[in-house]
Structure formats: C-alpha cells, structure tokens
Amino acid sequence: MKSFKKDIIILSKIVKMRDTNKEDIKPVSASELPPEFKKFDKPFGLEQHEFNRIFIGYITQTCLLISYFYFIPFGIISPWFIVINGIYGYIGGLGITVGCHRYWTHKTFKANKALQVLMMLMQTISMQYPIFKWCRDHRVHHKYTDTDADPHSAKRGFWFSHITWLFLPKHPEVEDKLKIIDISDLARDPIVRFQSKYYWELFTVLFYILPMLVNQWASPELTLLQNFIIQHARYGTSLHFTFLVNSLAHMWGDKPYDKEISSSENALVSLLAVGEGWHNYHHTFPWDYKAAEFGYKINVSTMFIHFFAMIGWAYDLKTVSHKLLVDRINRTGDGSHPLFNHAHAHDKTPISKDEKHSETSLPTWGWGDKALSKDDVVITETLFTSKRRG
Ligand SMILES: [Zn+2]
Ligand SMILES: [Zn+2]
C-alpha cells in the first residue's frame, strides 16, 4: 500500500512536470529492463500462449458466440447496450491506435503528460497487455515483416496472422529479436512503467468493474454472468477488428508506396480498426502520425490526434513531405497511385534484392530508430511544433 501511494505521488508529479525533449537517450540492454516488465513473461505462472488460449481463446470466443447468436437476436440485450458497450470498446481501440501504436511504438508525435496518462488508461481498457509488451512485438513486426522473426507473419497464413499466433509458442527467431529490439525509451518512461507495475489492478477496474457498473445501472435486471459475457463480447469484437490489420491488411489491397512488402491499403480494415488499414503507407513511412497519406480519409485516430494538437496536448507531429512521397511512389510503388509517373516507369532499373538490402538495411520501426536514414529525417515535416506552444 505504501509503495502504491508513493507511485501515485510520483505519477501526479510527472503529470504536473513541464515536458522536456529527451531525444538523446542511452540504449538499455535486455538484462537491464525494469522488473515490472519482466513479470509479464509468465502471466499467472502460465506460458503466455497458454494464458492467451484460455482468456482470448476459450472464454472470449465463447462469449462472442453467445452474444452474437443468442443475446442480440433474442433481445436479451437492447440496441442501446450495443451502442454503449461499442463506444467503450472504441475508446479502448483509440488507446491502441493512437497511444500504443502511433505514440509509444512509432513515436510519431509528442504528448504532454496528461495526454499520456489518458492514452495509457484508454489502452488498458483494450486488454492487449501492457504498453511495453505491445510495442515490443510491434517494433519487431515492422523490423522483420514477413520473416520467421515476425511475430504474426502473414506468410504463415491468414488465421496465423489473425489470431492463432497468440495461442502457439513463439518461433525461436521471434524470441531472439524480442530480446534485442530497442525499447530503451519505454523502459525509461514512468507512465509505461507505472502501467506495467499496476497492470492487473488497472485492468480489473477499467475492463470489468467500471463498464459492468454502468451496464448494471442502465439495466438492473441484467445478471452478473450476462454482464460478464457482454464485457468479453466487447473485448472480442475489438480484438478481431485490431487483428484484421495483421491479417487482411497484409493480404489484400493495393501497394502504391512499396510493392515489395505484404502490407496493403485496405479501406474496410481502416473502417473497423479506427484508421489503421492504410497499411502499405504505414509500413513504408512508419514515423508518419497519420499512418496514412490522407489524414481524414476513414481515419478517426488522426482526428483524435488533431483535436489534442489543437488544444496543445499533442505536438511535433511528424509527417512525410510531398517530395519524399512522390519519389517513393515512383521508385517502389505498384503504379496504382495517381501520382505514379507511368510515362517514365519503363526507364527505371528495378532495385535488386541485394541492392535494396544494402541501401536500406533493415526497415525502420519509426521515429528514433537508428535505421531511419538521415535523408528521410531531414525531409520529414513537423506540424504543431513545440515552439508554437510557447
Ligand atoms: Zn505500426
Ligand atoms: Zn503490419
């Protein structure tokens, strides 16, 4: 209890603290990772995939089936319930897309401490494990896309990349890369560490207690079991929408920015996954805060970031310049982009695999990755700069 009080005091001081630019940080080796990160290697003493099988597999998928094939068609829950729980699920989804994905994994913008706390709480609603764990997997996914080291490689089939990767032991290559991928920024982030330390407590309140109290208040005749099933149905629905980014958006769609990678532009995924379906663009330019070329085209996450940029909570939004965009479309695109110069397409000598490898080395995971080329850094534009905030 004493330690919890101390952590809360530290956290409240962090929120009040003036934001500082911490661009130059020393890397942290895997052995130096904080203890609150290490305890997630074996949740409740189980191997990660065994825990996933029970929680995400048996419990959640059963609740999904009961809700969609019994509760909804037989009127056990009213349409209002679907709306209320849908909105809550959507808030959790934004915690993943804006917080975990665009902010913590890819560092595409900066945020003041209040927004960081808000995003951390929203991310906890989604129950996709603590921020550091999600970001570490996702950085490895970007760095080693479509190889054995990709945790949910689409090359291993639709269902593997969609969900079954969570139920199977990790490939040894994935285990190796998880140990070496740089997450030193997250290891030093007090909000990320706070969330990891109190993850199960925060999760219990935000995933179960709070939404169940709202449901009970809205419909007192609801039994505890029905209320529990609804929470897992909300969870399962938002999980499947998120998973589509790893499966469908790595299989179907145009590749206007880089035809060599599996990630594709998929409007349906963008609609369901809060704006994350513009996946060919995102893998080509992972440091762009829009995760898409067009900010507001089926992209609620970008609207969210813009809103907080306008009130000064989000700033230094990184985005790809027009010149870099056009160059890349013409150099590696599949020709489906309107800016692709078909007249000169036949003039280009295709880049050989070896040349491509030596030219770019491994793909970058985002802003702050040492693999990001200096040219790309120089040409990147910054919107809502910190100077503008005064
Ligand atoms: Zn990403
Ligand atoms: Zn991807």
From TrEMBL:
Coiled-coil segments: none
A Pfam family assignment: FA_desaturase
Domain notes: The histidine box domains are involved in binding the catalytic metal ions.
Domain of life: Eukaryota
Main location class: membrane
Localization per record: Membrane
Family stated for the protein in its record: Belongs to the fatty acid desaturase type 1 family.
Transmembrane feature ranges: 51-71, 77-100, 198-218
Domain Fatty acid desaturase: 87-286
Entry annotated with the keyword Transmembrane: yes
Name of the molecule in the record: Fatty acid desaturase domain-containing protein
